Amino acid sequence: MIMKDKIGLVMGMANEYSIAYGITKSLMSNGAKVMFTAQSDRFQQKIWNMEGFKSSKIYVCDVTDDCNIDEVFYSIKEEYDSIDFIVHSIAFSDKNELQGKYYNTSRKNFLNAMDISCFSLTKVCQYANSIMPNGGSIVTLTYYGSEKTVPNYNVMGVAKAALESSVRYLAADLGEFNIRINAVSAGPIKTLASSGVGEFSKVLEFEKNRSPLKRNITREEIGNACTFLLSDLASGITGEILHVDCGCNTVGIKF
Length: 255
Known about the structure:
Shape: globular
Helix content: 25-40%
Structural class: alpha/beta
Order of helices and strands: EHEHEHEHHEHEHHE
Radius of gyration: 17 Å
Strand content: 5-15%
Number of strands: 7
Number of helices: 8
């Protein structure tokens, strides 16, 4: 129960196959109280329909709309006064551009991917000090495609690289307020987002065969790693990228 008496926010859970779902289940099993943001009314209802979340507080939050974000965090501050953690599990790219050559990425999709996948974290952190007056912890999610080329990951690899750099700068900014921020680089896993990446099944098979454990990572394992980083057990860890991938650390992936 390392999260007993802790309350926090999970942003970006889409369904039971989301990494955010595994994180939420781990947080709750360790004693945390969790509220959510959802992209739209439709996703809000989907979360309510999930087992165990019917009575959860869920705010609709479009992270491309500054006014909407302002309203959500003002409401959280008014209702809870302070929270202890935030999970940022938000990323997006047009799936039609997650195949073929990276240089074919359109300007519109590049800017949209950067806005949703990267800047949204920075925007959220603008509220960190006001809603975490006693300190706290933030975790975001990244992927190995930020460091090495992964077929068809394309603009998302660039966005995740920017996200990881943001984590380091945000750690320096927030440290004086006793707020930590880290990223978990999860190995490939089947989610709604990953289903849009071309030939993703080949990535899963490649990682499985290269891994010392001869398998892919699970949502539960990623969730437990995030819970650790959000807990007081990780009180001296900030600005880090933690790899949770069954030990596979390849030098680029080619098929």
